[in-house]
């Protein structure tokens, strides 16, 4: 079928998704509106609930459209391309059975380059399947929306390894933090480290090279208790070319006199070829405030590492281990460890690749996950046992606690 053929052939260094055109997607009657479903995983990573979008063809011609979130009959939210999509359909003469590749070429001002593969010319016959009309293509050399997810997971893994005696918070940049002029600061962090009656104060955002940006911290006296860094945040984003999925560690310094944040940036794109198995999805990519707090505040005198449960882990039935932890604390060529939660334990295989400096839990990890009811956004802290070598005591912080 044409969809599978396009999926195996289409490649891009940008995030993309594929859609098989169905009757509701390609109405050619101007009086009848047509809408296009956008994959939920893709919209969660790159889109807000509602917004404007630009559709471009290979000739550079563009069409303005909108996307919006609505509830389906099953009470699940769906993101759909609407106002303006119909004009694109008619101008490009899209037909049922054609396949469109939507390639995200601008994350800030959402723009897609749309490549069209005609169903008839590609050997399409019969009616399209009654599915949601997209194919989450994966490939090793190209980039579907799953590869940026892995890159973001890698960036977060490195950020979660950060430690400091100073207060700090870890922020995964969602698209709204890039497009707007404000970065939200959690109420928990603000209550703990800012004066309770503080509603406005000048702050500095500093890099390790000494460069700094003036900004403001604002918090409403009523309503939403979360504070935000603004009036300078946008300049910091633009000057450092921050993108959705990048991770920032904001380390609070000099808070007794003037508030400054030393910002350590972990770029998702730069990490795309490194170890891809740690991280998070939602908020903007899955951590609740409780599980994020657990991920960053847990300390121990024994060696440990943190891991956030992702859909990728549960789907592939394996989870990553920091290679440095394996190299330093586990025996060479060790093939099995014991994961222990309270009085229960699970033998789990580990696989490591010294050349790529990658390691992961494999056989047995999915049983550990299922029997502990792990879900996306849960945080596992794996702590080396003080007595028994190869035993990891696991503390689980549930995202919905």
Automatic annotation (TrEMBL):
The lineage of its organism: Eukaryota, Viridiplantae, Streptophyta, Embryophyta, Tracheophyta. SMART domains: B3. It holds the Pfam family B3. Residues 21-120, 168-269, 304-400 form the TF-B3 domain. It comes from Gossypium mustelinum (Cotton). GO terms for molecular function: DNA binding. Keywords: DNA-binding, Nucleus, Transcription, Transcription regulation. It is found in: Nucleus. One of its GO terms (cellular component) is nucleus. This is TF-B3 domain-containing protein. PANTHER family: B3 DOMAIN-CONTAINING PROTEIN OS11G0197600-RELATED.
